[in-house]
Amino acid sequence: MSGQHTAVQASDGSAFSQRSTLNAQRLIDTHVHLNHDDLLADISGMTARAQAAGVGGFVVVGYDLPSSERGIHLAEGDARIWATVGIHPHEAEAWDEAAAAKLKGWAAHPRVVAIGEIGLDFYRDLSPRPAQHTAFAAQLEMAAEADLPVVIHCCDAYEETLSVLEAHADSLPGVILHCFQGEHRHAERAWARGWFLGIGGAVTFKNQEALREIVRAAPPECLLLETDAPYLSPVPLRGKYPNEPARVALIAEKVAELRGSDVAALAAATTENAARAFRMASPPCPVS
Ligand SMILES: [Zn+2]
Ligand SMILES: [Zn+2]
User: Fold this and answer.
1) Per the domain annotation, does 211 fall within a domain?
2) Is 28 exposed, middle or buried (0-12, 13-18, 19+ CB in 10 A)?
3) pLDDT tens, 251-268?
4) In this structure, which ligand is nearest to the CA of 90?
């Protein structure tokens, strides 16, 4: 696809202006729920608009059993898609032996690149905390056994989550802290171990100066870009639902601006990080 100075119409009617530099990019949306009903309904539009915005790869993240299975099916049908499988802390009460057996089988699938999203969410507390801890620890052990990295969801629980991860660190091949919202000292603990920080729409929000400070200070090799679509649309589309993977380009622009970097260089570096984080055998080809 060529697209010098083309404008792509998003589902909400806003236009992404495509500069020629964006066409040379090959961004990866490292955390997107194309397995969610609200995105599945328009998946060919979502991926086409993303491709036109320079986004050539998608890590589709599972949050329960059905979404994990849908992610694998999507990845089987599209070389630009990889899948992760796991049970989100909101769904922690669904954790049982049958769920463990299913996930363990899927973890061996060649297109499954991580266990996740898993972790602790003490902000919404939609599951009892003991159930969250049980599901989290069991899935960390599963990841270690399957030799897969983990995608971590964490909200208002950075001390607890980092302590649990640090206790498992030696057996885990990698850790991705998606939608990072911790404090500077938490970020330092993560990058001291070579873990990755997923940076999404929040970096564009007015009240997120502390996150922007972390993004400015982060070692370049730890940064990943993500939308978490259908959630968390970045400014200037904040509050618009659903978010979509094309908008990872807006996040790339913001992160590049914060780091005083060229957008194309930032895209190349974060894509290389994604390929390393998820050990992708063949990162997507440049969009041309
Ligand atoms: Zn999450
Ligand atoms: Zn998510």
Assistant:
1) yes
2) buried
3) 999 999 999 999 999 999
4) 1
Q: What pLDDT, in 10s, does the model give residues 111-159? A: 999 999 999 999 998 999 999 999 999 999 999 999 999 999 999 999 9
- The model carries a pTM of 0.90
Look at the chain and report how many structural domains it folds into.
1
Say if residue 79's pLDDT is above 50.
Answer: yes
Structural domain boundaries enclosing 150: 7-277
Nearest Cα neighbor of 253 from 264, 238, 242 is 264
Model confidence at 288: pLDDT above 80? no
User: How many angstroms does the Cα of residue 23 sit away from the middle of ligand 2?
Assistant: 27
Secondary structure of 81-122 as H, E, C letters: EEEEECCCHHHHHHCCHHHHHHHHHHHCCCCEEEEEEEEEEC
How remote is the CA of residue 47 from the centroid of ligand 1, in Å?
Answer: 21
Which ligand has its closest atom nearest to the C-alpha of 230?
Answer: 2
Per the domain annotation, does 285 fall within a domain?
A: no
**Residue 216 forms part of a structural domain:** yes
226 Ramachandran zone, left/alpha/beta (phi>0; psi -120 to 50): beta
H or E segment and range at residue 128: none
Query: Residue 94 belongs to a domain with what CATH number?
Result: 3.20.20.140
Residue with tokens 């330092």: 188
- Which of 2-16, 39-53, 196-210 has the least mean pLDDT? 2-16
